[in-house]
Amino acid sequence: MKTKEIEIISEIVNYRRFADAADNLSYSHSVLSKYVTGVENELGIKLFVRGNKASELSLTPEGRIVIPAIQRVNDDYHHVLELVKRLKNGNESIIRIGSPLRFNDFIEQEILSDFIGANPGIKVHQTPKLSVDLLKMLRARRLDATFIALPDDFNLDALLGIYCDGYDVDVRFIKNEPVQYAVVSDEYFTSTSDVANFADLKDYTFIFPISNENEEHSIWRIAEELAYKSGFTLKTMFSNVYDSTLLRIVRKMPAAILTSDPDENYSGVRFIRISDWNMGFSVYFLSPKDDKRRSLQLLRHCCASFADGNKE
Question: How many other CB atoms are there within 10 angstroms of residue 277's CB atom?
Answer without folding.
Answer: 19
